[in-house]
TrEMBL record:
Name of the protein in question: DNA alkylation repair protein
Superkingdom as given in the UniProt entry: Bacteria
InterPro entries noted in UniProt: ARM-type_fold (IPR016024), DNA_alkylation (IPR014825), HEAT_type_2 (IPR021133)
UniProt cross-references to Pfam families, sorted A to Z: DNA_alkylation
């Protein structure tokens, strides 16, 4: 069995923190720190709970003066590998203890994000003084280091997973747009993914704004085109006609779904549903198509909720029908639990529901 993500914070990692601090700060109570970390609740804590617990234990054992404690952490951060998720305790320390020391904290967040990510830690600073912090994020969007540029985008996402929702930016995302404008042709895929995710966040609350942005950006640059397509994924899954049109998925009246079949009308939780279908066109001119399927799942209370899965994007014409054979698992996952009852599978073409079949999960 694979280790849980939270287990990056193990005895070896905690020992590394203690030993590193001891090297630059000989008075550090390393044994006390370790004992505080591994308390009776440690085993049950999630990844973020362990991170915050480490931060608080450092607050109990490092010098009480924030700037002195921060100086120690800045000295030891290079003793840890870069791109190390475990190192998010560094910016978390700034989040917890550094709001009153703005300049020093901002400098530290830019440093620490180059070793892990400060995307969560910047958010209380945005809430504290949005205008000041968004001006800082705009400056970071021009930084020579890709990790700092990404922080400008990722830290300002209105709906960042695992992070606090930025209600003000969720309601009015206009302060984010100049940051994204600076990054729309960024050479780093790491940054471009963040820009796309930020715009996708915005699309959930302001679809028309994102559609206007997509129309103005798309077709200007290959990097920007990738961002726009990835950013519109929620709108595309919703079957938004304007979004479909931007990427050439217009009316497909000449295209049909034929020979749709499912492997069984009954299956047990844990089994797979196999299904197949054919896509045909009655025209010689190729049609650009986006094929998805939708599962209407039964929920615990007996109601149903849908989830859409992408199959492919392709071209089809009269001379070349497309054949698809797919498998969908009904094995319980940490992210999805299945319930008995009548489910429905539907094939979607350019956002339109084409054919459906019911089946029972028991």
């Amino acid at each position: 069995m694979a280790n849980a993500l939270k287990d990056i914070y193990n005895e070896e990692f905690i020992s590394k923190i203690a030993q590193s601090i001891k090297e630059v700060y000989p008075d550090f109570a390393d044994k006390k720190f370790t004992e505080l970390v591994f308390n009776a609740q440690w085993v049950e804590k999630t990844l973020k709970e362990r991170m915050r617990h480490i931060t608080l234990c450092l607050g109990d054992t490092l010098p009480k003066d924030y700037l002195e404690a921060l100086s120690i952490l800045k000295q030891i951060v290079n003793m840890f590998p870069k791109n190390n998720l475990g190192c998010i305790f560094f910016p978390d320390f700034v989040e917890v203890y550094g709001l009153a020391n703005w300049d020093s904290s901002i400098e530290a967040l830019a440093l620490f994000t180059q070793h892990s990510t400060s995307e969560f830690a910047v958010r209380p600073f945005i809430v504290e003084d949005e205008e000041k912090m968004m001006a800082q994020m705009l400056e970071w969007s021009k930084h020579p280091n890709e990790h700092v540029r990404r922080l400008a985008s990722e830290g300002s996402r209105p709906r960042l997973p695992w992070g606090m929702v930025l209600k003000s930016l969720k309601n009015n995302p206009s302060p984010i747009l100049p940051i994204l404008e600076n990054l729309k042709e960024d050479e780093s895929l790491y940054v471009r993914k963040s820009v796309a995710n930020n715009i996708n966040d915005i699309s959930r609350d302001h679809p028309n704004l994102v559609l206007d942005l997509a129309k103005s950006w798309y077709g200007t640059n290959a990097y920007t085109n990738w961002i726009v397509k990835h950013a519109c994924r929620t709108l595309l899954k919703q079957g938004n006609k304007e979004a479909m049109s931007i990427f050439g998925f217009d009316s497909a009246d000449s295209v049909s779904i034929d020979d749709f079949a499912i492997s069984s009308e009954k299956l047990s939780i844990g089994e797979d549903l196999h299904f197949s279908f054919k896509v045909t066109s009655n025209q010689t001119t190729p049609s650009k198509i986006r094929i998805e399927y939708k599962i209407d799942y039964v929920k615990a209370n007996g109601s149903r909720s849908k989830k859409i899965f992408k199959v492919s994007e392709n071209h089809v014409d009269q001379t070349k029908p497309l054949h698809y054979n797919k498998t969908h698992s009904f094995k319980d996952l940490s992210t999805r639990k299945h319930y008995c009852g009548t489910h429905t599978i539907t094939i979607l073409l350019n956002g339109n529901e084409m054919v459906s079949k019911d089946f029972i999960v028991e």
